[in-house]
Design brief:
mainly alpha, Growth Hormone, Chain: A, 0% strand, globular
Length: 491
């Protein structure tokens, strides 16, 4: 028995054809959750027109989902570690499917906002179970390959959402199209739920975990204090309370750290084991995930704003513009395990460098372009960024989770996804603030308050500087990881 078997806690699975089918089932949940966070953005103008929604309603249709998603991830992961991940996954994906139907049949903005919040809770509920199931079913190269497929799914579905939304709206029209956007989940859920009942193993943990209610409360309050201002800040002009709320959230998390250390010393079971934070693969991987998701998530939003609002082009044209990113992710994600096995930690440096090349190229193209800019000029930069994305997400998750005991797989997955959501919210908030600030600065020089198309292009070029800074932060953080992640797994 080697040292690594210490972390095989209760199971020592060998991948079978059933395991790979199980992977497909749990990844259907990831596909639904990720694509739903992007496909709806394309439908927002149609929703506003058909439901007579106010700007505040539209804001909460998006932010309500993201807020609920982020708040439930860590508790969901902990519950999965306690009672098993199959019931958590089934509950979450069933609730998500039902909430999607409610979204598609909503008759007023309030119903839609409530249904979107329930969608977010459901997505956050089953989210950690996906990564935890991979951690429990696969080992070695098979696990790297499984995480590679997961990374591909995340990247492709992020970019595919606007394309699919644009196609549906173009074919079905504004009045019906936005409703069909939500009914996509009904089709997927109707197939995935019965398959999950049959295929996902019912592995109840032999070690009973306590819930640490005080720790759960601290995490929930801390995340709410950070998420709400990040989501709302840009649209309301970043008043004083937003900064105070973020500072309060930071204080809460410092208090959480002290509480978890106290709980560990006194024989209680903390919700986040302090030993995790002392492992460089885990703490470094979480920090890297946060910075990386901040760097790439906002790209699609800025390009969509420029294409649809600034240049007046269709949702489908906007979605197709970012298609090369999805294609690059699809190609590289399928072979990311080979890159990871050969390059070890250097694969993250290579991937982040490719994203940096992509964003710098985009900034230069937008800086030198005018309203006649063509999607063709963005194909190569976006493909390079997508290729880097495909060989980044999966290896980082794999390196991070290798050092985690299987009994804590759900909690670790919840923490990782929470970091990704915080990073995305921070990146979108910061990039969006820069973008709209640059636009607002042009208002005194405009006629009748109408901003020219060229100004939108210029604002995009400036906003991409934020993405560049975040990618540089990723490259710096990679240096704190062990050179060979295999060594850390025996820690």
């Amino acid at each position: 028995m080697n040292q690594n078997s210490t972390y095989q806690d209760n199971f020592e699975p060998t991948p079978t054809s059933k395991d790979w089918k199980t992977l497909i089932v749990v990844l259907s949940g990831t596909f639904m959750a990720v694509i739903d966070s992007t496909i709806v953005n394309v439908a927002l103008p149609s929703i506003a027109n058909n439901l007579h929604a106010t700007s505040s309603d539209i804001e909460w249709i998006v932010s309500g989902y993201l807020l609920a998603f982020g708040l439930i991830l860590v508790p969901a992961g902990r519950f999965g570690d306690r009672i098993g991940h199959k019931p958590i996954f089934l509950t979450g994906i069933s609730l998500f499917t039902i909430a999607s139907v409610v979204c598609g049949t909503a008759i007023n903005p309030t119903e839609l906002v409530i249904a979107r919040v329930i969608q977010g809770l459901a997505a956050g509920l089953f989210g950690p179970s996906v990564q935890a199931t991979i951690q429990l079913l696969f080992i070695g190269r098979a696990r790297s390959r499984a995480f590679g497929i997961l990374g591909t799914m995340i990247g492709v579905s992020s970019a595919l959402g606007p394309i699919l939304g644009g196609v549906i709206l173009s074919l079905a029209g504004s009045a019906l199209g936005w409703r069909l956007v939500f009914f996509v989940n009904l089709i997927i859920g109707a197939i995935a739920i019965p398959m999950a009942v049959v295929l996902i193993p019912n592995n109840r943990p032999k070690i009973t975990h306590k819930l640490d209610p005080f720790g759960l409360a601290l995490i929930t309050v801390g995340l709410a204090a950070i998420f709400i201002p990040l989501i709302e800040g840009q649209s309301i002009g970043w008043p004083l309370w937003t900064y105070l709320s973020i500072a309060f959230g930071a204080i809460i998390f410092i208090s959480l750290t002290k509480w978890e250390q106290f709980a560990s010393r006194t024989g209680r079971e903390p919700i986040v084991d302090p030993k995790l934070a002392r492992q460089r693969p885990f703490s470094g991987g979480v920090a890297i995930a946060m910075a990386y998701f901040g760097a790439f998530s906002s790209l699609f939003i800025i390009i969509s704003l420029i294409w649809q609002v600034g240049l007046g082009r269709s949702p489908l044209a906007s979605g197709l513009t970012v298609a090369p990113f999805a294609l690059g992710t699809l190609i590289s994600g399928s072979i990311s395990d080979k890159f990871s096995a050969r390059l070890k930690r250097r694969v993250l440096t290579l991937a982040a460098s490719m994203l940096a090349t992509s964003v710098v190229s985009l900034a230069l193209i937008f800086h030198s372009s005018n309203s006649n800019i063509s999607s063709i000029t963005l194909v190569i930069p976006l493909f390079i960024g997508g290729f880097g994305n495909g060989i980044f997400i999966a290896p980082n998750q794999d390196f991070l989770l290798r050092s985690i005991p299987r009994s804590q797989a759900g909690t670790a997955a919840g923490l990782l996804q929470t970091a990704q959501r915080i990073g995305s919210a921070f990146g979108v908030a910061l990039t969006g603030t820069v973008f709209f600030t640059v636009l607002a600065g042009q208002l005194p020089h405009t006629k009748n308050g109408i901003i020219s198309q060229d100004r939108y292009i210029h604002a995009g070029a400036i906003a991409f500087l934020v993405n560049i800074a975040l990618v540089i932060a990723v490259l710096a953080l990679i240096t704190i990881l062990p050179r060979n992640p295999e060594v850390s797994s025996t820690n």
